[in-house]
Every structure is written in C-alpha cells, then in structure tokens.
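[agent] plan:
  1. take the single chain provided in the ticket
  2. run structure prediction with default settings
  3. attach structure tokens to the ticket
  4. add a short note for the reviewer (M.T.)
[agent] executing step 1
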Amino acid sequence: MSTNRVATRKGSHEEGSIPMLLLEGDKLCIDQNGISRTYYEIKRCTPSSSCLCQDQKQLVPSLSLEETYDLNSASKAFHLREKGITSPSRKIFDDSGASTVAGNNGVINIGKRMLPSIQLQEIGGGVSKSAGTGSVTWESSIAMSLFSSTNPCFLRGNILELGSGVGLGGMLLYRLAIGNTGYGTLTLSDGNLEVIEACRENCFRANIPLHVKHLEWTNNFRKQIELYDTILASDCAYKEEHINPLVSTMMSHLKPDGCIHIFGPHNRATLHLLIAKLKDSQNMDVQMNIIEMSRYRLPPQRIKEEQKSNYVSQNVVKFIHAVVSSNQNANYEKSYDSSSMHDID
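[agent] step 2 finished; step 3 output follows
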C-alpha cells in the first residue's frame, strides 16, 4: 500500500519538489511516486447574470476538470468531467454528476470522466529558470476555460491568446468550448522561444490543431500586424514594467470592433493596473465580473471509473474576468449579457 504525504507551500519548483505559488495553507496530497490530484469546478459568478450567454442560459451544461500531476516528470493530465445539468426539454447529463460537498476532508461527487484527456508537459526547473512563468500551468487558464464552456459566445471570429505559456488555456478552450462556436482560428502566442516550442509540442501530442507563434510584446513595430476579433489574456500581468508593452500589444492586434477578455486572480495588483491602463490611457470600455472556482485536493490513488472521491482540502479561488472593448463597439453586447457587469471606476 502506498503512503500519501500532505505537503504545504514551500520551496521552489524544481523537479520533484513542491510547486511555487500555491496559496498559503494550500496543500497537495502526494503519493510515494510523486503523484497528486486536484478537482476544479466553477462555483458561481458575480453578478451571476453577466456570466451567461443570452441564448445559452438553459442548454449549455456545466463542466469540471480533474488534474493529475506527476511532480517528478513535471507532466500533467487534464480530464474533463460531466456534471449533472438538465435542460427544460431533454436530459443532457446524468443527475449523478451533480457537485455535492460534505464538509472539509469529506466527499465530493466529481461526475463521469469524458475522453480524451489532455496530456501536457511543463518545462522542468520551473519559474526560476530561463523559461520563467510560462514554464508551468496556472489556474487562471482553468477558470477561463471552464467559464468559456458555458459562455462560448464571446469566443468570436479569429482569436489570439497572449502569454499562452505551455498551452493549457488554449488546449482546454478547444476541447471545452471552441469546437461548438464556429470560430475562425485560435492562435496561441508567447514571447519566450523555449516556451513556445513546448506549447507547440503539447498541441501536437494532444492532436489539437491550433496556430502557435512567437510574439514579443516589445516588438510591435512591424509593418504588417495581423488583427484579431478576440484577444485573450490569462494571468499575464505579473510585473508592472510589463503592463505598457502588454497594452500596446493588445491594442495593436485588436480589430476596431474587437473585444479583449482578461482573466486573473482577483487580488493581483498588477492585474488591476492593467485594467486601469486600458480604460484610462486607451479610452476603452471595461466591465468585469468575479468567477469563483472551487479547488479540491484529492487523494492520489484514483478508483477506476469513480464518480465520488474523498478530498483532503477545499478552497474557493476568486478570479476577475474583465471585458475590454471600444466605447463605440456595440456588437459585443448583442451576443453577451453584460447588463449587470461591474463598471470600472
């Protein structure tokens, strides 16, 4: 019988060690082989009505994700799970998939696994090495993709994701949301050549047909720049000195009637600086809502075809979803219910 260990945040993210930037007090339950598991689901959005496409309020099912993490090889597997949602006219998923929690260190119903899973390779050595923050995955990408699975309407036209890292957000978007939207193209980008090569390899291994390109935020002076209908940025604003180049890149690649969707931790100061910069210096309209995502640390040993699991710890993590568009752009609000989103003062 294998022995599990519960590890709290400490140290740097070297191969086989506990990852950096876990929340204080957050825990991973790791077995003797260096395996941990985590389950994610969207708890709610505030205000709730702003989180729904106007024509999708009853028919789009809510989905969840299970992550299996091999710390020794810096590899992850993401498994899409069904949750129990029914429409007025027909049954979409089994009711047994509904999310239920019985106290802390309790039991959660995690629903049925759906295939195929996404296998993803991070870059060993973590954020302290040359690949930087793009070398690992971030939970904002999970929040973005789960939110998009119930709100695919904002993924319109040709889409560019900035700061894609090793590709998690884009690959999840393709599996969870984009396949049903009739979008044009989805392009993943990053400014680090090592990271963009890892992103390209992850997409290839997962057989996900996405465009991947090298894009430095400080190099926006090319004569011909491709413009996009939708720009996505998930957890991109880490340092204050990156904000001006990021804003410049967003504005130079956005069509006049396009929209920018920014996702990130609600308490990150540089994220608020980025949002304020887009509103004040670029005269853009900015609205936002809060996404609350539940994170459950599960025991590493998975029972085959399980739909219920014990959990070691549970946290609710809050993310901002900011919608940025031109003040003259009315196309976005026709397809997306933004009537009760918060204006940025």
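[agent] step 4 note for reviewer: DSSP finds six helices and 16 strands in the chain.
[agent] ticket updated
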